[in-house]
Amino acid sequence: MPFKHYLMTPGPTPVPRRVALAMAQPLPHHRSPSFERIFAECRQGLKWIFGTLQEVLVQSSSGTGALEAALVNMCRQDDEVIYVNGGKFGERWGQIASAYGLKTHEIRVPWGEAVDPALVRRALSDAPSAAALCVQACESSTGIAHPIRELAELTRHSDTCLVVDAVSALGAMPLPMDEWGIDVLLTASQKALMLPPGLAFSAASPKAWSRIEHADLPRFAFDWRAELATQRHDRARWTPAISLIMGLAEVLRWLREETLDSVYARHDRLARAARAAMEAMGLTLFAKVPAASITTVNCPVDSELLVELLRDSYGVGLVGGQDAAKGKIFRIAHLGYFDDFDIVVAVAAIERGLAELGHQAVPFGTGVGAALKVFSA
Amino acid sequence: MPFKHYLMTPGPTPVPRRVALAMAQPLPHHRSPSFERIFAECRQGLKWIFGTLQEVLVQSSSGTGALEAALVNMCRQDDEVIYVNGGKFGERWGQIASAYGLKTHEIRVPWGEAVDPALVRRALSDAPSAAALCVQACESSTGIAHPIRELAELTRHSDTCLVVDAVSALGAMPLPMDEWGIDVLLTASQKALMLPPGLAFSAASPKAWSRIEHADLPRFAFDWRAELATQRHDRARWTPAISLIMGLAEVLRWLREETLDSVYARHDRLARAARAAMEAMGLTLFAKVPAASITTVNCPVDSELLVELLRDSYGVGLVGGQDAAKGKIFRIAHLGYFDDFDIVVAVAAIERGLAELGHQAVPFGTGVGAALKVFSA
User: Fold this and answer.
1) Pair (B97, B146) in one structural domain
2) For B220, which of A96, A198, A221 is closest by C-beta distance?
3) Is the dihedral of CA A199, A143, A326, A95 positive or negative?
4) From the list B17, B196, B237, which residue is nearest A243 (CB)?
5) pLDDT digits (tens, 9 = 90+) for A203-241
6) Is B135 part of any domain?
7) Span A316-335, pLDDT tens digits
């Protein structure tokens, strides 16, 4: 029998069959009443998940495309940008800002740690005219959660906008944009939203919109001012990724059935179970402040070998580490369409794989048992 | 019974069920051997359809995103660009170039006409250092085909690169990039490639690459130099639209079964049948040099009314005209997954709709009969 494949990576994440088949339906034209009804439903649902009264703009691109769009739509050519670099995605803010000639202030954070708000407070006072403070809600490369709510308290009374990449966070943990005072919140389709990659979503606060009105960096395909004027009428300016939007409508119906509180509670429960399992196996967590979406673990053997073994011998797809963390960590995703028994499978595969690689510190079942204990609590 | 829906628009075009279900399969991770095998297959197939030995870069975006990427990857800030404006898409070249501060030379062509190569020759000699001559292979808003092969003869011995938007042409008519000397050829997924929207594809000649090496317009998410270095290894830099790429692999298998010659012959046959049907009904064609992908027809009644009637009463989706052509023309697509009987349906719906709107110049069946005659020849 060919493998059953278990996709347990933090993006792409598994697409429910119900959603996959919604996307397999015949396409409506993007300038038709039937598409406009679907788009209107998506607009409402996205506002609900973002916790905002603002429009959530839909962009046909990768998440990186949305990070780029956020900066080019907010900034003027002489603007300064502060960014938190605690991993691959934090680093990307700096790369994008530099590509557009913006002056950058980096707040460097050791991999595996969350940013200290005191450092952010100092950066904001050192660069009081900075256009943006850019940060990840969850830094996917390390699995940590930055303290977004506290950062929003710092930017609230400044001229600087808080720009949050919530690609691997939104829909997995509460990030109520308006309530917390996040100025730009963005995410992508292939994470907690249970869709294939290809769509990104962004919303901006009135404070951010006042910058967007005066931005002068060059852009065309994704210009937020023009897109806002069009999407308000349930249309996109260019032919959008229609099938993914059909899937999004189905996902939003699903999430409304589950309710957001239950969705967040599920992610929290899976995260606690994964952490308990790893600790019961004598392993240590890499992330000092772990996010609800990813559990990052220090690997007692070469983690590249473990990831390959799980993938090639058992059909279980985890991811390892990047850059300096390569070979040192592995990451268990519980982001999107994951339930308790997915964690059982992931932990069981890790128990088996470590044993096969010569590292068996505890009896088989120890990790799985710890997870089950969390589920039964 | 709810309507059967007949999507007969020039993008999105119908997605074969075989392709839709290929996209509904579980997703592989984009950094896994199984995805890399799919991507390698796509790279080979795209080179075959483009008729090029160069890499065809895959971009997760709308077609407009690929037009923008072509200019920002080729141009320096002080570059001049010549563009052919014979419709909405020709106009877009100018809008994109202006958004990036490039100096533009517009060759204006009346809607419904193809560009006269003599005008292009003059523009090239007036602006001999122009970086690019931008043109559509098929201008979707009018249905004409510009003379790409002749234009390539003009740019071949100049410093100017021929940049061809083949979004509604590639895969419907021959555009052998290397043989003709096209410098940049680009298309999108939702046309002859029978996929949903969300992917775009671009290739550049060695002459274009020598410009790309020195381009200095700001860009990040879609930087061709970086993308080339990555995609050569069967990976994309950012998480790509995986499900659409899985669909692309299936489409390419399909097209290899049909063979490109048969695909082009089919499009040509459908175009001839549609034109014969319209002429038999006493209607005139709007496009002086009609493309194989779209038949554009002067409408004897308000074409907006006709399009709405066909959509709302029969479930048949055609498109009308844009801008000055709004209300005056309608467009029949035969682009991608269309066969003879699709044309029969489109013509029958038009016969019926025109009669219902009070315009019946010929007996029922006249248009369909003319189409059948072409098919039986």
Assistant:
1) yes
2) A96
3) positive
4) B196
5) 999 999 999 999 999 999 999 999 999 999 999 999 999
6) yes
7) 999 999 999 999 999 999 99
Q: Does one domain contain both B240 and B299? A: no
Same domain assignment for residues B100 and B21: yes
Q: What percent of chain A has pLDDT above 90?
A: 98
Domain range for residue B178? 17-257
Residues of B in contact with A242 (CB under 8 A): 12, 190, 196-198
Residue where one domain finishes, among candidates B257, B272, B307: B257
CB contacts of B222 in chain A (<8 Å) are 65
From CA B157, how far away is CA B161, in angstroms rounded? 10
- The confidence score (pLDDT) of residue B326 equals 97
Domain at B358, CATH number? 3.90.1150.10
Q: Test B218 with A21 for CB contact under 8 angstroms.
A: no
Residue of A nearest to B29 (CA): A12
Contact B239 A96 (CB under 8 A): no
B23–A243 C-beta distance less than 8 A: yes
DSSP for A65-106 reads HHHHHHHHHH--TT-EEEEEESSHHHHHHHHHHHHTT-EEEE
Mean pLDDT of B71-95: 98
The verdict on B190 and B160 lying in the same domain is yes
Domain count of the fold of chain B: 2
Stretch B21-35: mean pLDDT: 96
A335 found inside a domain: yes
Q: Which of B14, B17, B68 sits opposite A220 (nearest CB)?
A: B68
Same domain, A348 and A369: yes
Phi, psi (degrees; rounded to nearest 5) at A295: -110, 120
Q: Does a structural domain hold residue A8?
A: no
Output the 3-class SS for B53-103: CCCEEEECCCHHHHHHHHHHHHCCCCCEEEEEECCHHHHHHHHHHHHCCCE
Contact A27 B15 (CB under 8 A): yes
Q: Which of B9, B237, B244 sits opposite A29 (nearest CB)?
A: B9
Question: Which of B29, B31, B75 is the best substitution to test chain A (most A C-beta atoms within 10 A)?
Answer: B29
Q: Does residue A1 surpass a pLDDT of 80?
A: no
pLDDT in tens, B191-247: 999 999 999 999 999 999 999 999 999 999 999 999 999 999 999 999 999 999 999
Q: Which CATH number is B47's domain given?
A: 3.40.640.10
Q: Is residue A343 within 8 Å of A277, Cβ to Cβ?
A: yes
CA-CA-CA-CA torsion sign (B43, B47, B53, B59): negative
What mean pLDDT do residues A168-191 have?
Answer: 98
Q: Check residue B257 and give its pLDDT.
A: 97
Give B336 to chain A, closest Cα distance, Å. Answer: 14
**Same domain membership, residue B267 and residue B241:** no
- pTM recorded for the entire structure: 0.97
Closest Cβ–Cβ partner in B7, B29, B241 for A198: B241
- Which of B3, B30, B243, B326 to substitute to test the interface with A, most A CBs within 10 Å? B243
Write down which residue in B257, B277, B299 finishes a domain: B257
Are the CB atoms for B18 and B246 separated by under 8 Å? no
What would the mean pLDDT of B68-72 be, rounded to a whole number? 98
A140: pLDDT strictly greater than 90: yes
Q: Is the pLDDT of residue A2 over 80?
A: no
Whether residues A181 and A223 fall in one domain: yes
Together in a domain, B303 and B334: yes
In a domain, B355, yes or no: yes
